[in-house]
Each structure stands twice: as structure tokens, then as C-alpha cells.
Model the fold of this input.
Amino acid sequence: MSNTTTRPARTVLHKASDRGHANHGWLDAWHSFSFANWYNQERIHFGNLRVLNDDTIAPGMGFGTHPHDNMEIITLVTEGALKHKDSMGHEGIIKAGEVQVMSAGTGVQHSEFNPDPAHRSKLFQIWIFPRERGTKPRYDQITPDPKGRLNQFQQLVSPDPSDAGTWIGQDAWIHLGEFESSRTAEYAIKKEGNGVYALVVSGSATVNGHALGKRDAIGVEGLEGLRIQAGNEGATLLLIDVPMELK
Done:
């Protein structure tokens, strides 16, 4: 695709096996970007995308109460459930297929636990730098219709409270698509100066000519977007469209 922004065209490829990995017993975590004890100078962030963690939480285990501030935190539960409690007064269960947003702003404390004593929980947690610091913390939780992402990209998160899905305080969009065997799709980057980071959640796909397997990822900037073809077994892709310039 042609370069339609003022930023030079750039593509990064991240193989699943090159991610950071930490198995704490109760938590098996894979990090696309430097996190906790894993540090890779080449993988600190992708534009304003700071964290993309692929977590498996053991039955009955989880994260005790801990603080966050000035970060847009998005959690996609893909298996099992997650029990959430925070200092804003929210308490409840996030089930598989649901999306949680917590804009930490001036500061919030929360805990996250797998409430099932017998089965694991799996989730993706995404941290995006906010457009403005020091905003009022907020919480939201949605249940997207899974039919809305069959052979197309379903919008989960945007900057617009009146748009589909939920919203965050950044010019960023998150989409999820589930494509049948050999299906093709295109994704246009939403805003000039943004890039898009695409993770293959399951299956395989060719993205902008690059063959990707499960949990492989590609990031592009300075281009119009992505051309995608699902592999023979189909593919599920998570797209994170973010401003590339850090303020």
C-alpha cells in the first residue's frame, strides 16, 4: 500500500517465540513489549501502544490490589472469566468474549482474579498511553455480538463515545476479526499519523505479503493499512490502531 502520511513507511515483524515469557505458576504471561522483568530495547512500545500481554491465569488465582495511573487499559477475556474490583466502586465478572476498559487517569487501584476454582482464564491486556494526563478515571464493560466479527473486523474500542463498542481517551481503535479459510479483508488505518499493530490470535494469515502463524504479529506505519488473507484453517486477528507520535 502507498504511503499516505508524513511518517516514513515502516514494517515490524514480531514472531510469537520472540516475545517475553514469564511463567509464575499461577500466571503464564507472554509480553509483546518490554514488561516487568523482561526488557528488550527494540520492543519498548509501538507508537502509543505500550503493553500487549497474553496471560493465562490458573484456577482461583490472580492479581492482588495494585495501582495504575495515566494509562488506557483494555482487557479482552478469551477463555473463562475474570473477577474485577476497583477503587471507583466497580465489582463484577468479565466473561469470555467481553471487553473491559479502565481509564486510569489520576489514579485507580484494582484487583483481578480468576473466580473459577477448576478452570483457567485467558486474556489479552492492552495498555495505551492517553491523549491527556490527569483525567478522571472511568470504567466500562461491553459484550460484543460475536456474529459481528465473522469475516469482517468488529470495532471494540474507539475514541468516540457515540461510536460502536466502547471508548478511550486516545485517538486509537481496536478491532477483532474472525475469518474463514482463505477469506480476504482490508483494513484502512483510521487517522493520519497512526499505525496499526496486528496480532494473529489463532490460525494463520498472510498480512501485507508476510506469512504469520498463531500469535505472530506485524506492525505498520506510513501506509494506508493492511491487506489480509486467512490461511487454510482460517484466522482470528486483533488490530490495534494507534498514534505513532509520543507526546
About this structure: The domain at 10-243 is CATH 2.60.120.10 (Jelly Rolls). The mean pLDDT is 96. DSSP finds no helices and 20 strands in the chain.
